[in-house]
Fold this protein.
Amino acid sequence: MAVVVVNWHDSTPATVSYDLVANGVAFSKYDSCVTVDLWTGEETQHSGGVQAWGSLAAHSHLAKKVKCSPF
């Protein structure tokens, strides 16, 4: 699944988090997942729970590709 987040606010940064289970990307918070930052190519391995993607500056964006499996 691809996820794109845009902060449209003119001056306020936005804290970004994404719940993989609630959004149907992972079956449970114990799933094994890999996230790829589509701008940098950096891969991160993690569990299937809520992902904290940090602060997003005003008029900024991020793009991630997330793949999870239950084992």
